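Structure in, sequence out. Go:
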């Protein structure tokens, strides 16, 4: 955005008219972020923008704030304001994260944070049709795409259906492992979508502030009529969005 002296080479002020100046500036910044600057690039400072467009710092702050709310810009304390990467649009279907990212031309990566055999909470025991106090496999993984942290997954898996699961490589596609090693294809699932605030650990792993909003998906999946997994995933809301096809059933 110009050399060190560019702040003094500003254009005439924004015109008075039916559109408030913060709206005019917002649309200028939208075009800058969408068409000119690459993802992760710094936008000019509030002071530079105020000088360039002949508006107050308050007007600049309001325009930037609206684009931050939309997810087009992000503020980083002590560093400035930056463009964000476009959200990945997830068409809801029963597919693995690895498959989904590869289909989009992105490089998936999985970091295995923990994998143990333990007694699941009662809700999971019911979902997996386990007896009380019967252990299950618990996986804790960080999922990345092109090096960016995208999701944190905490999942429970049925040990009777997937014996010895913890002895396999759990940093690749789990659904591929189920298919190749166990001869299982996940056939159906029930997924609940909600919003939640990031706790300290999840925020650290995803590179966001504690307390910021995340998209949360809880999925119970079955294979050959038996429940296999009860997994909850926390996704960055600024990098992910969900699209669902809705069809109205005929009136009865």
């Amino acid at each position: 955005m110009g050399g060190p002296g560019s702040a003094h080479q500003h254009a005439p002020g924004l015109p008075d008219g039916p559109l408030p100046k913060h709206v005019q500036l917002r649309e200028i910044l939208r075009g800058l972020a969408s068409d000119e600057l690459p993802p992760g690039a710094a936008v000019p400072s509030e002071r530079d923008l105020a000088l360039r467009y002949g508006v107050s710092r308050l007007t600049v702050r309001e325009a930037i704030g609206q684009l931050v709310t939309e997810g087009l810009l992000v503020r980083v304390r002590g560093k400035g304001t930056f463009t964000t990467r476009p959200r990945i649009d997830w068409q809801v279907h029963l597919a693995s994260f690895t498959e989904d990212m590869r289909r989009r031309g992105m490089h998936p990566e999985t970091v295995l944070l923990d994998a143990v055999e333990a007694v699941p909470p009662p809700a999971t025991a019911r979902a997996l049709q386990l007896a009380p106090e019967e252990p299950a496999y618990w996986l804790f993984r960080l999922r990345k795409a092109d090096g960016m942290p995208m999701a944190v997954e905490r999942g429970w898996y049925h040990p009777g259906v997937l014996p010895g699961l913890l002895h396999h490589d759990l940093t690749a596609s789990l659904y591929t492992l189920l298919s190749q090693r166990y001869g299982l294809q996940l056939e159906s699932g029930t997924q609940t979508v909600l919003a939640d605030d990031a706790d300290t650990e999840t925020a650290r792993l995803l590179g966001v502030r504690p307390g910021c909003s995340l998209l949360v998906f809880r999925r119970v999946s079955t294979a050959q009529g038996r429940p296999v997994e009860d997994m909850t995933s926390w996704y960055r809301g600024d990098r992910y969005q969900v699209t669902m096809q809705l069809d109205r059933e005929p009136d009865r």
